């Protein structure tokens, strides 16, 4: 046996320590109880770790490692079909269960770790395979890793100076997205959500048509501006009219057909009507993937009308934009999108990028700077050592901007463009499967329309309403079933599907498959669980 030197002894201890850490980690990964915070660290306060104590690397690492364990446990539970989606409590009860008070005195690290656990315990698992409630579902693990890195880097996106790598990533990703739309050049930005992206489009359109507006305001516009959008559009479009001084009366709703698509002849009629009144039609919003029905407005026909009357064409593809990846589904839905002047496209919806990630694209290079620049001298000096065009801060109406790019860039690296295409095709295929399964059970389910996207609109029929003819009165009763059944889903915690009325019908269910976790068996579960929870519902 060789003689044990002091160095050798230390290295041996280190190996053991690493082994213990590894087995703790393995135990937590396999769910056999998460390692605990040692009391030496658990009893510390914020000012005993970094950045307050520079000799506290180990304590800081231990604390953060235990927080990460809590997060990993959550990721595991999100993907466990035996776990509930939520522990529903009424707000009053929830307030009693949680200790949310802010105190004068600091709390120790062990309490903060408990706070993290309690927070996730009552959080709805939006990435659970049985969560079909929202347009943003799922928990993409690579994108999550990106979000964690983003938080650690904690930088602002306004200058190249402080976000060099992320700024270059934005350029690469946004150019790629513009190319997919069908443009060789242009301008783009990431905005805090599709609603703000739509606002950016509106502002750019007004600037493009009336460049004097920026300095001279309303007096530079020869009449009352009017914008057009379908009656199925996202409400953020109407909000542009209110925010930007048109008034919502001047956001004109164009009627849609029975499947929720804008009727071009109606658009043209309304444009003419407003022109004749002396108004100034200047902006048309076409929706690619409406929020409720998932309908696609006919872009080529709308583009013809925009050209004829010299109006800006914006496409709100916040929801449906992801289908640009799919050779199979892109056409005819998004045919003509390259003729638009601007496009909103939210990766945080169909593409499953973590919230929040929204993009808006313009056909015209430099339009954002021209429209929004205020040239603040303290941030955007023109004598910097690098090309100031790499600073993005003056392109936006915000000052600081959150880093929403890294989680998308990393996800795209991981999947490849072909991986996104496969995801789109898969989500569509699952939705088609769901439609088939609904049609196979006409006594229990009523399909409202053939969907163009992953929105499946339907009613559930409890026993009481089976076998009687479908008419307006029955629709009212089916509408009442929705709220009751949704209540039961929340209480049981096993399933979440959204419902809403629209202007043609009372409440109906709108199911969304936009999570990569969903499989055919989850769709089967969804339908059988609705029936299990709902069959004895009785309505007036
Ligand atoms: C979701 C959605 C929006 C709004 O996007 P946010 O990111 O929620 O602000 C806009 N338009 C359409 C069609 C949408 O579906």
UniProtKB/TrEMBL annotation:
<keyword id="KW-0210">Decarboxylase</keyword>
<dbReference type="GO" id="GO:0030170">
    <property type="term" value="F:pyridoxal phosphate binding"/>
</dbReference>
<dbReference type="InterPro" id="IPR021115">
    <property type="entry name" value="Pyridoxal-P_BS"/>
</dbReference>
<dbReference type="Pfam" id="PF00282">
    <property type="entry name" value="Pyridoxal_deC"/>
</dbReference>
<comment type="subunit">
    <text>Homodimer.</text>
</comment>
<dbReference type="GO" id="GO:0009449">
    <property type="term" value="P:gamma-aminobutyric acid biosynthetic process"/>
</dbReference>
<keyword id="KW-0456">Lyase</keyword>
<dbReference type="InterPro" id="IPR015424">
    <property type="entry name" value="PyrdxlP-dep_Trfase"/>
</dbReference>
<dbReference type="GO" id="GO:0005737">
    <property type="term" value="C:cytoplasm"/>
</dbReference>
<keyword id="KW-0663">Pyridoxal phosphate</keyword>
<protein>
    <recommendedName>
        <fullName>Glutamate decarboxylase</fullName>
    </recommendedName>
</protein>
<dbReference type="GO" id="GO:0004351">
    <property type="term" value="F:glutamate decarboxylase activity"/>
</dbReference>
<dbReference type="InterPro" id="IPR002129">
    <property type="entry name" value="PyrdxlP-dep_de-COase"/>
</dbReference>
<feature type="modified residue" description="N6-(pyridoxal phosphate)lysine">
    <location>
        <position position="349"/>
    </location>
</feature>
<dbReference type="InterPro" id="IPR015421">
    <property type="entry name" value="PyrdxlP-dep_Trfase_major"/>
</dbReference>
<comment type="similarity">
    <text>Belongs to the group II decarboxylase family.</text>
</comment>
């Amino acid at each position: 046996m060789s003689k044990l030197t002091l160095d050798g002894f230390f290295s041996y201890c280190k190996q053991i320590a690493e082994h213990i850490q590894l087995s703790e980690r393995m135990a937590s990964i396999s769910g056999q109880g998460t390692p605990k915070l040692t009391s030496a660290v658990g009893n510390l306060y914020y000012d005993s770790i970094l950045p307050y104590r520079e000799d506290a690397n180990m304590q800081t690492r231990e604390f953060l490692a235990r927080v990460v364990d809590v997060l990993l446990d959550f990721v595991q539970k999100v993907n466990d079909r035996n776990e509930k989606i939520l522990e529903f409590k009424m707000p009053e009860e929830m307030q009693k269960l949680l200790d949310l008070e802010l105190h004068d005195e600091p709390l120790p690290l062990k309490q903060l770790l408990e706070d993290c656990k309690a927070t996730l315990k009552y959080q709805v698992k939006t990435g659970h395979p049985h969560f079909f409630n929202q347009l943003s579902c799922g928990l993409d693990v690579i994108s999550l890793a990106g979000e964690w890195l983003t938080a650690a880097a904690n930088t602002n996106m306004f200058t190249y100076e402080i976000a060099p790598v992320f700024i270059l990533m934005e350029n690469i990703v946004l150019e790629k997205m513009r190319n997919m739309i069908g443009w060789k050049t242009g301008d783009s930005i990431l905005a805090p959500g599709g609603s703000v992206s739509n606002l950016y489009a509106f502002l750019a359109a007004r600037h493009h048509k009336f460049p004097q507006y920026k300095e001279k305001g309303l007096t530079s516009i020869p009449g009352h501006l009017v914008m057009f959008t379908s009656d199925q559009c996202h409400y953020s479009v109407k909000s542009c009219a209110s925010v930007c001084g048109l008034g919502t009366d001047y956001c004109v709703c164009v009627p849609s057909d029975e499947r929720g698509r804008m009727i071009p002849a109606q658009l043209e009629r309304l444009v003419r009507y407003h022109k004749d009144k002396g108004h100034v039609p200047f902006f048309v919003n076409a929706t690619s993937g409406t929020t409720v029905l998932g309908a696609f407005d006919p872009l080529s026909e709308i583009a013809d009308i925009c050209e004829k009357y010299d109006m800006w064409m914006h496409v709100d593809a916040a929801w449906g934009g992801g289908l640009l990846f799919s050779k199979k589904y892109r056409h005819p839905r998004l045919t003509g999108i390259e003729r638009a002047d601007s496009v909103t496209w939210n990766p945080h919806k169909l593409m499953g990028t973590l919230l929040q990630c929204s993009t808006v694209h313009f056909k015209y290079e430099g339009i954002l700077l021209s429209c929004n620049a205020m040239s603040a001298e303290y941030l955007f000096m023109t004598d910097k050592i690098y090309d100031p065009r790499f600073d993005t801060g003056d392109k936006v109406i915000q000052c600081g901007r959150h880093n929403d790019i890294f989680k998308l860039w990393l996800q795209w690296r991981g999947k490849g463009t072909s991986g996104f295409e496969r995801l789109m095709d898969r989500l569509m295929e699952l939705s088609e499967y769901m439609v088939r399964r609904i049609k196979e059970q006409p006594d229990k389910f009523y399909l409202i329309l053939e969907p163009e996207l992953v929105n499946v609109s339907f009613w559930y029929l409890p026993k009481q309403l089976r076998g009687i003819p479908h008419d307006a009165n029955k629709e009212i009763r089916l509408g009442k079933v929705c709220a009751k059944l949704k209540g039961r889903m929340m209480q049981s915690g096993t399933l979440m599907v959204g419902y809403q009325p629209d202007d043609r019908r009372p409440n109906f269910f709108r199911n969304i498959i936009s999570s990569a976790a969903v499989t055919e068996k989850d769709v089967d579960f969804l339908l059988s669980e609705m029936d299990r929870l709902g069959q004895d519902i009785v309505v007036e």
